[in-house]
Amino acid sequence: LVSRDNHPERSTVRVGGVPIGPGTVTLIAGPCAVETPEQTLQAARMAAAAGATLLRGGAYKPRTSPYAFQGLGEAGLRILADVRERTGLPVVTEVVDAGDVALVASYADMLQVGTRNAQNFALLQAVGAAGKPVMLKRGMNATIEEWLMAAEYIAQRGNLDVVLCERGIRTFETATRNTLDVSAVPLAQRLSHLPVIVDPSHSGGHRDLVLPLTRAAIAAGADGVIIDVHPRPDQALCDGPQALVDGDLDELARVMERFPPLL
Ligand code: PEP
C-alpha cells in the first residue's frame, strides 16, 4: 500500500489543511514537551515566527529513564488544543500506548509514533484506525525496509495519510545523539509514495547541529522538517540542549522563506 510501485505519484498528506508533500518544505516546530500553558504558547509563537505551519509538542514523553519527566498526559493535550485555538497552528503530538489513541486523536490533528514505538504493531494498527494523519518516526535501529513495513501496518488499517520521519539511527558515533541518515530521504521517496520529513533536533541532539542538518535535509529533498524550540531551554524538562532559542530563529526563518507553504 505504501510502495511506489503501485502508486507512482508522490502523495501529499494534509494536516488540519496544511499540506506535507512534494512542492514545498513544511516546518513543524514547537517544544519537545508541553510543560506549561505559557511555555507552550511562547514556543508556538516562536515557531510561527520562523515559518512553522504546524505545532509539535509532546504530552506523553517516552523517556529512557523512568525517573525523567514523562509528560503531562491529558492536561498537556488540553494545553495544545488551547494553543491551537490562539495561534491557528494544527497540532502534532505523540501517542505511546494503543489504549490512549482515541483520547489523543480527540485533541490532535496528527498522531506521532516515536522511534521507540516504531515497531509496536498494536500501536501502529490502532493509529491506522484512528482517522487522523500519522507521522511515523523511523526506529533508531530500523532498516528502511522495516520502517516502510511499519508504515504498511498503518496503511493496512485504511489510513494512507502517513508521513515518514527520518530521525537518526544508532551508529558507533557518540558525538551526536544519533546519526542522521540523509540518504534515507531519497531512498524512502524512491521506494514509497509517502512524504518524507526529517527531525534534525532528535537526530543530532545539539542546538548547533539543527540548522546545518535542516539544510542537509532540504538539499536531500525532504518534504518537511520537525524542530524543537523552547523559550528557556536551560529550564526545559526535556531535551533542552537541542532546542532552538530566539536568537537561532531568524536564520531558520531565512531558510524557510524559500519554501512558501502551498495552502
Ligand atoms: C519527539 O519527537 O518528541 C521524540 C521523542 O522523538 P523520537 O521518537 O524521534 O526520539
From TrEMBL:
It comes from Streptosporangium amethystogenes subsp. fukuiense. GO terms for molecular function: 3-deoxy-7-phosphoheptulonate synthase activity. The chain holds residues 71 to 333 of 345 of the full protein. This is 3-deoxy-7-phosphoheptulonate synthase. Transmembrane segments: none annotated. Residues 17-257 form the DAHP synthetase I/KDSA domain. The keyword Disulfide bond does not apply. Keywords: Transferase. Its EC number is 2.5.1.54.
